[in-house]
Amino acid sequence: MKITICNVLIAFLLLSCQPTIETNQLEDSALKVIPMDESNTSDDMIIVDSGDNALLGDLYVINLNDQNAQKLLDSGEMGYQHFGYADWSPDGSKIVFSALTPPWEIMTANADGSNLQTMPNTIGGQYPAWSPDGSKIAFSTWKDVSDIYVINMDGTELVNLTEDFPLNALDPSWSPDGAHLVFHAGESGDDFELFTIAINGLDTEQMTDNDVDDWSPSWSPNGKQIAFLHRSANDYNEINVIDLDTGNISQRTTEFGYPDLSADAGLCWMPDGKRLVMVSEGSVYVSRYEGGVIFEKIWKGKAFTSFPGCP
To answer: Domain of 34?
Structure first.
């Protein structure tokens, strides 16, 4: 498995003190459907990239209240091959995403798709993530190696946070207080593990350590958990969650309980901190934990659907 996930990720990109691990099994193995309820608001919008193949992808916005989706930005119509890795600004008025011509570059737009702009000094940039205060973007760039960068919204003060980090670092996610990033990293041909780093580039901490891939992390809104994808020994992608107070890791999916829900690239927390958004085989799902994991399929996308962005 070590080489498989790395090769898959690289192909998609180039279209382009360890915690104690305590695993809690799911208590309910039946796939349930949950209705959207009065706790949902008009801000319950997620954004995903979706296309017929890995070289082509457009951005779609899905309203969780009525489960309707609309295409926000068509990459081909604008002279690009792929739009993806989208994230919302903290106030929900804008999006940031990566665009492939090639090369990759980072772009911003209004939430309605207007005012499309390229961010200066972000050539090769992927996995952009908007800082909680709205002032910066974190992203990763493949050059000789992959590093995590932070840049101001006007393209100034580009800082390489992982310049002295020995591994390829990808896919940053901000802590809610804006003080740290979590990302996955590994050597070429080896498995990915999760790490955190302070925004000053110091205090790097390894969060996972095993022989399979841990990747695509997302920090919870309350700052107490990190959700991520975990590749099992038989090539099944589970959703795991780290409790940062205890270091315990619990599963949100298992192959036994959810054989059709092997998670694809990317996941994110909804602002309520109770729901996770994931993608499996082109479909977008929302899950919550209520004595067991409950899933709702909210949208059937195209074959290559990935990297959901939550408000």
So the answer is: 2-309
All residues at 6 or more sequence positions from 242 whose CB lies less than 8 Å from its CB, including other chains: 19, 194, 207, 208, 225, 226, 227, 228, 248, 249
pLDDT at 32 over 70: no
How many structural domains is the chain composed of? 1
List the one residue out of 173, 191, 189 whose CA is nearest residue 181. Answer: 173
Report how far residue 122's alpha carbon sits from residue 113's, in angstroms, rounded to the nearest whole number: 20
Is pLDDT larger for residue 41 or for residue 275? 275
HEC sequence for the chain? CHHHHHHHHHHHHCCCCCCCCCCCCCCCCCCCCCCCCCCCCCCCEEEEEEEEECCEEEEEEEECCCCEEEEEECCHHHCCCEEEEEEECCCCCEEEEEEECCCEEEEEEECCCCCCEECCCCCCEEEEEECCCCCEEEEEEECCCEEEEEEECCCCCCEECCCCCCCEEEEEEECCCCCEEEEEEECCCCCCEEEEEECCCCCCEECCCCCCCEEEEEECCCCCEEEEEEECCCCCEEEEEEECCCCCEEECCCCCCCCCCCCCCCEEECCCCCEEEEEECCEEEEEEECCCEEEEEEEECCCEEEEEECC
- Closest by alpha carbon to 287, among 273, 279, 297, 276? 276
**Residue 8: its pLDDT value, please?**
37
Give the pLDDT confidence of 120-166 residue by residue, as tens digits: 999 999 999 999 999 999 999 987 789 999 999 999 999 999 999 99
Longest distance between any two alpha carbons in the chain, whole Å: 50
Burial class (CB in 10 A: 0-12, 13-18, 19+), 146: buried
**Cβ-proximal residues to 163 (8 Å cutoff; 6+ apart), any chain:** 147, 201
CATH of the domain at 214: 2.120.10.30
Is a pLDDT exceeding 90 seen at residue 7? no
